[in-house]
Amino acid sequence: MKRKESVNSAGSFLLRIMEQARISTRYKDVADKVIAEHEDLHWLDTASVSIGFLASDKSKKSKGREVLGECIKVRDLYRAYIPHEFIVVIYEPNVSYLTDEQLEILIYHELLHVGVDDTTGEPRLQIVPHDIEDFRKVIDRYGIDWSR
Ligand SMILES: [Zn+2]
User: Fold this and answer.
1) Whole-model pTM?
2) Which of 52, 71, 110, 145 is most exposed by smallest CB count within 10 Å?
3) CATH 3.30.2010 fits 19-142, yes or no
């Protein structure tokens, strides 16, 4: 944890910086490779969807489990400051054990979250939710398509 000291007229405060992230050209390079290798992602290039990549130093957890990465849609309001439509964050302390191939799969996963909502007749970029929620035991025993 890092601290930044800040003083104002009311006295001294300690502001804790809980997470620091930097722009990652490495993950951008991996993403370019992944997009080239996956036909279902080629539209990202065709439509010039702008995606930024961050490496975070946070060991993020959610519901007791480590989060490896995350894909966030940048709110329209923030676009003046953030020159991307989406940000992919990789939580580096949680991915140190991944092989290069596993990292590519993780980035493929994150890029699959980028989608288009065209149900209103006016296509808009959106976050695509996961389509699988199940128990590992069920998938191990019955396969991922057990309900079809
Ligand atoms: Zn996901």
Assistant:
1) 0.85
2) 145
3) yes
